[in-house]
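Is iron/sulfur cluster placement plausible here? Inputs below.
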Amino acid sequence: MYPDRVVSGMRPTGAMHLGHYHGALKSWITMQSEQPCLFFVADWHALTTHYDDPSIIVKSSWDMIVDWLAAGIDPSQATIFIQSRVPEHAELHLLLSMATPLGWLERVPTYKDQIENLANRDLSTYGFLGYPLLQAADVLIYRASEVPVGEDQVPHIEMMREIARRFNHLYGKEKGFEEKALDAVKKLGSKRAKLYMELRTGYQQDGHDEALEQARAMLNDAGSLSNIDRERLFGYLEGSRKLILVEPQVKLSTSSRLPGLDGRKMSKSYANAIGLREDPETVTKKIRTMPTDPARVRRTDPGDPRKCPVWQLHEVYTSEAVKDWVVKGCTSAGIGCIECKQPVIDEVLAEQQPMHERAQQYLDDPSLVRAIVADGCDVARKLAQETMRDVREAMGLDYT
Ligand code: TRP
Ligand code: SF4
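Reply from A.M.:
I modeled the complex. Tokens:
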């Protein structure tokens, strides 16, 4: 119905680093030329954890958008917008909240994790608990078919699918269909009919995929059913028809993970990051001073690339030939570490060069960025309003 639409968001963390580029932006850039894409700044999401310090959100959002554009997100292909500028997200979040069991939110793994990890913040708030539901609204409001996210976000997308399914189950009924389906259920015989209804509830309400499989197998085995009744029961199993909200699929990012300068995950808070548009001198210096295999105290000591963070960068950036040269040279002490780092420096600088160029026009004239985002918000708002009309109508809130 809404083929291939992609939606993804990022919290406004300010200037991006190369970890963001390799982890997410690169795959966004590939997708934007293949399918309709909506990319947004999740500024309300920032408030769910940093509600006490909102002063940096606006600047962080603009900085992040400039970096998206610098990286190659193309506003003539993708829609770029800011979540809070499309308040329909909040309306859908509210309406979805009515029928969302608390347990679904409490069970999301990031909920307990984050409360523990961010122990210095008080996250026992309503907003923080509802964070994955807000995320569900962000995606469902565009009837997206795919959501590119990292591994850590997969449970959120799974919950989002359950939310959509439940919504359609509660509000998507169509006249006539239901009676015919229920007649067909009776034809199963009382024992099977009971099981069918239980499995249907198990799938629709509680999201048990095995229940769906079991019910389908049972229908295939039920020889007494006519084909048309069987089709009805397959349909009834999953909904009843009108698909008001669409269940999106996860699109796991296939891009390589880029480690930081110390070998740990690249992150601003570890101070091991290379900024997306950091100047070439600083980048060169940062890589030159990276730690290497500690066994190579002297130039004549052989090393092991597997113990060296520089090698991890080679894995992302350099050719097979260069990597062979590194392995041989390192393990035989044939090359020095500074020598070994040079091809990485060259590749990183080459990657960043077009980013500096693309960013220049936006730095010279920030009103260009404002205009791109204003257009993107208009496009997004129109799509969101269409969905909200259907949602309100389905929920009996149509006063026109
Ligand atoms: N929760 C995501 C993160 O922290 C950001 C986000 C908000 C998002 N809404 C979204 C991602 C919708 C994908 C789709 O990274
Ligand atoms: Fe690391 Fe290269 Fe030095 Fe080996 S030669 S320790 S891979 S920087």
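Short version: The first strand starts at residue 6 and ends at 10.
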